[in-house]
Amino acid sequence: MSESLVISGGMLAGHAGGQPLDLMIVDGVIAEIGPQGSLAGGGQVVDATDALVMPGFVDIQVHFRTPGGEDSEDIASGAAGAALGGVTACVMMPNTIPTIDNPTLVKEVLAVGRTSHCDIYTSAAITQARAGERLVDFDSLYAAGVRIFTDDGTVVDDAGLMREALLASARLPGCVISQHAEESGMVDGGVINEGVVSARLGLKGRPREAEAVIVDRDIQLAAETNGRYHVLHMSTSLAADLVREAKASGIRVTAEVTPQHLILTEEDVERLGTSGKMNPPLRTDTDVEALRACIFDGTVDAIATDHAPHSRESKDVSLSAAPPGMLGVETMASVIWTEFVAAGLMTLDRFVALLSTQPANVAGLVSQGQQLEVGKTANIAVFDPQDEWTPDQSSLQSKSANNPWIGKRLVGRVRHTICRGQLVVADRALL
Ligand SMILES: [Zn+2]
């Protein structure tokens, strides 16, 4: 008989009735669900008393820096933090050294991912070496398993190339073209959001309109080509209005937002220092308010972290000189729970949709983001909504420290994580 794992006595997301249940996993699949105490015996049991059992979280934008940047993060350290945060699948960005723009490198990265603490998927670049000149071979990358294409870190400036990429996405089922939407000329030399803080600090700003210019253009191209378009880390009310309108017109567009763009503003940059610098930058109160509305009205499909590690040395410089990006995959669920669910602003169902079901759909990850039902692959997060904690540098897995949430009191924490039926985190510790 196969070894079984029982998650005992938790409240299962998506199951009405309000009674704690047992969930049994056999051979990586949910084999049985029954009343609390009914399934224990025979196999390993993990305690889910007073906890919520949910589909594992899916982060569709992480930078795990493999290959070429392993001093700041690698797949093992990135995936370890993800697992502790209840994340059972990550989609890596291809702005590595070298760029992930060919099937050989895709296969190498995925092979490394198979030994890590969560499922690893990778996107690939839209243009070779992300140089914005020649397109990649979409068909061979698609055959290697890639579904998300992006030059993230930089925008695809050339509308002709973007049009060709969207045409490729129109003929490859499940394929999506994702854009880091900031018009190059407008943000050249820009450090933080163009506004009151950039003026106060005497820094060149990155205008909000730079995002809208690209999103507007790309939506027109998506409409014309019937391609699938995804806005990475959407940061402004301007882009949000464009995406909302495009969706209403039936154009195939999706969007994600990061926890930081939902919570922090340009006013936090001085407090956070270089950890508060990212692209697109932290914006204004108006933008935060608009993006918060988007996660409830369907304009935004997914919350994704843009987990972007940078070594302490590289961030220990001036705001102008520091590389953009902040950490987030390990704390995503707790930060969103604290800010929205514990605050009474969001339901459990919406939380699961934004952190699991919908990002899995955007990325075409069929074994992720599934309802907790018999026969489904067991990718599961057991989350204790009462567990209060404060992230500190020594307790986090990342090799880097550019984390805006260090020192923030958080409500809710992942207790256990199960990836493909394997217990990878038990009682808040990695296995
Ligand atoms: Zn980006």
Helix/strand layout:
Blueprint: E1 4-12, E2 21-26, E3 29-35, E4 44-47, E5 52-55, E6 57-62, H1 75-84, E7 87-92, H2 103-113, E8 119-122, H3 138-143, E9 148-150, H4 159-171, E10 176-179, H5 184-187, E11 192-193, H6 196-201, E12 205-206, H7 209-225, E13 229-231, H8 237-248, E14 253-257, H9 259-263, H10 269-272, H11 285-297, E15 302-303, H12 312-315, H13 332-341, H14 348-363, E16 380-389, E17 410-419, E18 422-426, E19 429-430
Parallel strand pairs: 1-4, 1-5, 6-7, 7-8, 9-10, 10-13, 11-12, 13-14, 14-15
Antiparallel strand pairs: 1-2, 2-3, 5-16, 16-17, 17-18, 18-19
Helix pairs in contact: 4-7, 7-8, 8-11
This protein binds zinc ion (ZN).
Question: Can you describe this structure?
Answer:
With 431 residues, the protein is an alpha/beta fold. The chain has 2 domains: 4-53 and 375-430, Urease, subunit C, domain 1 (Roll); 56-363, Metal-dependent hydrolases (TIM Barrel). It is built from 14 helices and 19 strands. The strands form 4 sheets. Strands 1, 2, 3, 4, 5, 16, 17, 18 and 19 form a 9-stranded mixed sheet that branches. A 5-stranded parallel sheet has the order 9-10-13-14-15. Helix 7 runs parallel beside helix 8 and helix 8 (237-248) packs parallel to helix 11. It is globular, with a radius of gyration of 21 Å. The chain binds zinc ion (ZN).
